[in-house]
Every structure is written in C-alpha cells, then in structure tokens.
Design goal:
This protein is α/β, with parallel strands linked by helices. The chain is about 30% helix and about 15% strand. The chain has 14 helices and 19 strands. The strands form 5 sheets. The protein has a 5-stranded parallel beta sheet, covered by helices on one side. Helix 2 crosses helix 3. The longest helix is centred in the last third of the chain and has 24 residues. The radius of gyration is 23 Å and the shape is globular. The two termini are about 25 Å apart.
Length: about 550
Amino acid sequence: MGTSEDTVVIIGAGLAGLSAALEIAAHRPVMILAKRSLHDAATPWAQGGIVGVLGSDDSVDAHVHDTETAGAGLVDHATAHFVSEHSARAIGWLLEQGVSLTPDAAGPLGLHLTREGGHGVRRIAHAADATGHAIHEALLARARAHPNITLREHCMAVDLITHRHVGSDQPACLGVYALDVQQRQVLALPASAVVLATGGLGRVYRYTSNPDTATGDGVAMAWRAGCRVANMEFIQFHPTCLYHPQDRVFLITEALRGEGGVLRLPIPGAEEPWGPRFMPAHDARAELAPRDIVARAIDFEMKKHGLDHVWLDATHLGEAKLREHFPTIHARCLALGLDIARQPIPVVPAAHYSCGGVVTDLHGRSDLPGLYVAGETGYTGLHGANRLASNSLLECIVLGHASAHDILARAPQPGQALPAWDESRVEDADEQVVIAHNWDELRLLMWNYVGIVRSNKRLERALRRIALLQGEINEYYASFRITPDLLELRNLAVCAELIVRSALARPESRGLHFSLDHPGPLPASFPTVLPGRAARRPAHSASSTRIE
C-alpha cells in the first residue's frame, strides 16, 4: 500500500515518532514505518523517567542551569529554555494519553518525582523503573486505534527521495524509498513531509545499552541527502550497564544511584563490605556526578586495577524499597541469579546516547525543506557536550509536537511522480560473510579507538579503517539486492565516519569527548558542524535511484 500526496511519513515508531503522529493525525493522514516490529524501539528500554518542572522547589531556570552545567558550555540556552518550559505540558499530555506514572498523593499533579545525577532537585516523573515501556505501550495503543494512522511493521527506510531524484533544482524532500522486508520489495512512498525519528546509533559500538535497531539510519540518510550534522563526537556512555554473560545490554537506571546506590571496587580483602567506594575521589558529587564523569571514573578504575567490572551496591536500601521502586531491575537480576537486595550488581560503561545528530531548529526543520527530525536523531543544541539524565524523553515529546505543529501550519505541496526503485542491474548476493565480518570489525574498532578515552593516533587509525570498510560496503551495495543487514551496516559506517571526523575536529576535552592529546578544555568552544554530503551518483551505482 502506498501513500497519498498529503500523507506525512514518519520513520520510527518510538516516542518521538508517536508524539508527532498523534498530533498530526487529527488533521492529516500519517504513515509510521517501523523497520522491525512496532515494539522494537528504544523507548521501551528507557527506565529512569522524564523531566517535569512541576515542584514548588523547582523552576525552568533551575532546570536550564542543570542542563547547561551537564552540557559543559555547549548547550544552546534558547533551546534548553524552550524544552524546559514545555516540560509540564509534556507530562500533562502523557497523562491525557493514558500513561500511568508512579503516583504520590503529596506530589505535584499527584506524581512521585525522583532525582538523578546532575539534577539539583527531584523533578523526574516515572513509572517505577520501566517508564519508557509504560509510555510506549500507551501511545502505541492510541496510534493503533487512530483511523488516520497507518502502521507498517518490517518496513525499513532505505533513503530519502529528494529533488535530485526527479531532476529538480528546488531542494525538497519528496518521500522515501522503503524496503518491505517480508515482500523483499522496495517501495517509493510519496509524502507531503517526512519525519525522521529513528533513534540513536549505539550499535556502532561493541558494547551498548541500545536495542539492535539503533543503527543511525536517520542520521545517515539525512547526511546523504545533504543535511548538516553536529556534535557527533559526543557519545554518552552510560556508566552502569549490567555485566553478565547472559545479558550485557540491560541498563541499570541512574535513578538507583539517585536513591542512594554507591559504586565500589570489587577488590578482595577490602575492609568495607563489597569493597571501597571510589567516586568521592573523582568528584565531589560522587555517584550523582554527570554521566560522563562517572563513566570515565569507572573506566579509569577498571584500567588501573585490571577489572572487568565494578560493583553498584544498593543492598543498604533494603529489599522492600528495591522491589517497590525498581521492580524491573530486581526481577531481571533475580532471573540471572543476582539478588540485588543482598549482593551488589556488576556493572560496566556502555555506549548509550548520541548528543549530536541532524541539525534542526526548534520546529524540527532540517536543512532540506519537507524533512523534519525529532528525538535522538536530531541536534537542537539541548544536550551540548553531555546529556542531562531524563532530558531525552522530554526532548522526544517537545520536538515531536513542534514538528507536527509546523507541518500542519503548511499546506501540502502538490505531489509528483517518483521514480521506482530500479533493481535491473543487481543480483542476489552469493554470500553474506562480508556483511557479518565488516559489522564486527567496525564495532570493535569503534570501541577500541573511539571510546570513552581517545587520542589523535587512535582516531586517525579508525578513520583509515572506516574508509576501507566503506569502500567494500559501497561496492557490495551497488552490486547486490539490498537487505536489512546491509542497510544497517551502510548506515553505521557513515555514522562511524561522522563521529571520528567530529572528534578529530575538536582539539580539547569537553563533556563526553576526552582526548589524551588535549586533556583540558579550550577557553571558548563551539558546536562541531559537518556539512551534508552532496548527493551524487557513485561511479559503480547499480541504478539511478541509488543516489549516494
């Protein structure tokens, strides 16, 4: 099934995409594309909560201050203020959609608010420790029931259809090529506007808290279409991902430290139970320091002592409190043989969030007319050099709504015939080992050379190897029929290049970017902005629709 010329196509079925869809659908038809099932988004993985400036002890200015402090001098003040002043409205909207947040009769709006690292007060609304799941299920149910929303599962965006595909000099996004995975057919879907809400790119690293779908698809597609990207060097490594042979992607929410959990060294013979604390030696805020500081501290201690992990000790909180406030973590760990009420949790840092992305304004508009970006895929300047905890879900709603309102304020442009996807000069691949090998090599080199601590030599080595991999990937892409694995690898390779190029362009250490060659910050710093790749037809392109 195709789309009508006034349909808005939203790529991604997480919080940003659903927020935009539910606002648009009251007035225009919407099609949501999910490259796997509708439940395979990053939103359900979010545990901690969503910022809401609700309490009498809180204010927009206080939240902006905390956001700017975490962002290490690179937060756009106007953006932070815009997002913060819409936080109460976002929480109210979630409640209107039927999202069940943890109640507290004495709390603002009758909600329980918790505190996380970097926040000066309790301002995190949550649904126990499974906030993302509660939000996603409620909004997805709304979308399923809406007569103006079409949901397409197993339909993966390949590339944006732009003015170049129809031989026009007037920049515009006209739709998207999408692979129907089950039918093995590439569709040309026209759209009056396209919203990129594909989430992050954590799968570019070997160890990540992100789901398998986080392969940077939106960033790569927008950059190929000519859009700028910014601050790609700032990759947030969450300090506490579960270290267990059966589960190395399960996130241990920062809220556990917010409620009193402490980090300890698993050193035999230590006098303190479970080993000594180490965070007070790294920062006065100890376990409540911003994530970049905690992640680097853990990385430092692991390297110093030759450790595979550190302990996150919450045993002193008591079983009753752990079961009440952290039921998901308690149950998941218990299923793996870890009773967190009686023993500490083994944790390691893991790639968690990209603070950079496709450059947009506060209406979600990208450089390409008709193309909007919301959520982790976009760069608004909110996060600067480091994201403040629980600002991400808030940004998804605020920018999702802003994109929707701007789309509705503009009359749909007349549609035009789009070229069909041409597979006349390609064939089925005879083997998939090239994809699997390149996937593993890319993720390993990014982990080893472009991780928590970097150097110019490591970055230059990574860039050379990425270039070689891209040559192989592009040759494969031009010669064979596309598959989801090939598309994801192609997009990850683009994102890896952008991360490394951005890191090389920043001769300082700031926020999430720490360089051994430049260990201190510069007196003044600015966002790293890379121009979009000029769309062109590669020399060995299989067809005119495969514009690079």
